[in-house]
Design a protein that fits this description.
Elements lengths: L1 H4 L1 H12 L9 E3 L16 E7 L2 E8 L6 H15 L13 E7 L10 E4 L14 E7 L12 H10 L3 H8 L4 H14 L2 H38 L4 H8 L3 H5 L6
Parallel strand pairs: 3-4, 4-6
Antiparallel strand pairs: 1-2, 2-3, 5-6
Length: 256
């Protein structure tokens, strides 16, 4: 919501993430300005913003939990974006440069650097196969503890990493205009009725998901208990194996 409603902030963020001067960005289009309601219930909190930046496709992925197989997921996101750009009748040369930027709140690579960039290279000569594929990874847990006010990239990433208002205020106290603008915009967004409604829908989705998971686990336990009863196993062993109460196990007994 913050970056879609304040596209100039997003433009500045992308410039720093890609390491290009802001004034060099001419074309800047957000391709998915709406947040689908079903995404609010995503327990892994993966959000993305798809953009066209100077003719290239840029997909900004933000993820707070490691679902596993994340590099493969990112390659899938890239393949989806890259292949969908080819219109009927166009040649392959017209495919745009496609970059996936991942800001992740978990360590992914066995290195100290918080930023990694990948492109397809020949393994001995290191010759670039194509510049139309690129993957940026920014690992928030690896950020340095002290960030200066002159490092815009680290300031942006620290903004994503912040978990409390105190941390936001610490960044704001550096009096970096863009950071103050971003934090003030954040406060405005979170005070809006639209944000509160999205927050309510997200809380409801999480509750519904937890309840569905609880019911599914209970059904699984009941099925196991029924099979154990069919094998004439004692109630105490069934209770110990499934965690069900004697009353729940008794309810499975078929009336004669």
């Amino acid at each position: 919501m913050l970056f879609v409603q304040y596209p100039e902030l997003l433009k500045k963020l992308i410039a720093d993430l890609l390491g290009i001067p802001l004034e060099d960005i001419g074309q800047f289009v957000i391709r998915n300005p709406e947040m689908p309601p079903e995404n609010l219930g995503d327990k892994f909190c993966r959000l993305d913003i798809n953009m066209v930046v100077n003719g290239q496709r840029v997909d900004l992925e933000i993820q707070v939990c490691n679902e596993g197989d994340y590099p493969e997921r990112v390659m899938y996101y890239w393949a989806r974006e890259f292949s969908s750009a080819l219109l009927t009748g166009q040649g392959y040369s017209s495919l745009p440069r496609t970059i996936v930027i991942s800001i992740i709140d978990f360590p992914l690579f066995e290195c100290e650097e918080y930023h990694s960039f990948f492109q397809p290279l020949e393994i001995t000569r290191h010759t670039l196969l194509s510049d139309k594929m690129g993957f940026h990874f920014f690992e928030l847990p690896k950020l340095p503890s002290d960030v200066g006010g002159d490092d815009m990239l680290l300031l942006w990433l620290s903004l994503f990493k912040a978990e409390t208002e105190e941390e936001l205020e610490k960044i704001k106290e550096m009096e970096v205009p863009v950071m103050s603008q971003a934090i003030n915009a954040y406060y405005t967004i979170t005070a809006s009725s639209e944000f509160r409604e999205k927050e309510r829908l997200r809380a409801k989705a999480r509750h519904d998901e937890a309840q569905a998971l609880h019911n599914a686990r209970r059904e699984e336990k009941l099925e196991i208990a029924q099979k154990m009863m069919d094998m004439d196993m004692p109630f105490d062993k069934i209770a110990k194996a499934t965690g069900l109460t004697p009353a729940e196990i008794e309810s499975l007994r078929i009336p004669i």
